[in-house]
Amino acid sequence: MDARRRDEIPLADSLAERLARGDVFSEACPSREVLRNVTSRWGVLILVALRGGTHRFSDLRRKVNGISEKMLAQTLQTLEQDGFVLRVAHPVIPPHVEYSLTPVGQEVSRRVEDLADWIERSLPQILQARETAQTRAV
Predict the structure, then answer these.
(1) Residue 74 CA neighbour count, 13 Å, CB half
(2) Which of 17, 51, 85, 115 is most buried, judged by most C-beta within 10 A?
(3) What whole-number distance in Å separates Cα of residue 75 and Cα of residue 40?
(4) For residue 90, which phi and psi values (nearest 5 degrees)?
(5) What span, in angstroms and rounded, lies between the C-alpha atoms of 83 and 79?
(6) Phi/psi at 129 (nearest 5 deg)?
């Protein structure tokens, strides 16, 4: 999103430029679905896991602890449809499928990795805030 507020967009910006950009605040904009896919719990973890390079399905399942096979398959398919993940099936028996990030997948994964890293570094402060809020609620 642009740092400017939506109501501060200069008149010089063309309607085509604004429409091409997307608007996650608009209910009808497809960017909202992409945002949901990228920032889902499994989407973030898979994107960060794939930053380490190409992985097979079973490798990803082990790395993303707690994800079911069904959810991993669905999330990979969604990220592939959004253009973030490349799926390569090798014609061998048994099937050998590898997953990696596309160039745009590399870009988005860097951004969500920064968020995940910030959460990990800030976890003590976040947990303290939770504890404080729970104490006040009692």
Answers:
(1) 9
(2) 85
(3) 9
(4) -90, 135
(5) 6
(6) -65, -40
Q: Which two tokens stand for residue 64?
A: 């993303």
CB 64 within 8 A of CB 42: yes
Using DSSP's 3-state secondary structure scheme, residue 10 falls into coil
pLDDT score for 60: 96
Please give the backbone phi and psi of residue 100, each rounded to the nearest 5 degrees, phi first: -145, 170
pTM of the entire predicted model: 0.81
Predicted confidence at residue 15, as pLDDT, reads 61
Class of residue 63 by CB neighbours under 10 A (exposed 0-12, middle 13-18, buried 19+): middle
How many CB atoms neighbour CB 47 within 10 A?
26
Domains of the chain: 23-137 (1.10.10.10)
pLDDT value at residue 101:
98
